[in-house]
Amino acid sequence: MIRFENVGLRYGFGAEVLRDLSFHIDSNSFQFLTGPSGAGKTSLLRLLFLSLKPTRGLISMFNQDITTLTKDNRATLRRRIGIVFQDFRLLDHLTTYENVALPFRVLGKEEDSYRSEVIELLQWVGLGERMDALPPVLSGGEKQRAAIARAVIARPQLLLADEPTGNVDPNLGQRLLRLFIELYRSGTSVVIATHDIALMDEYDARRLVLHEGRLHVYE
Question: Any idea where the domains of the chain sit in the sequence?
Answer without folding.
Answer: 2-218
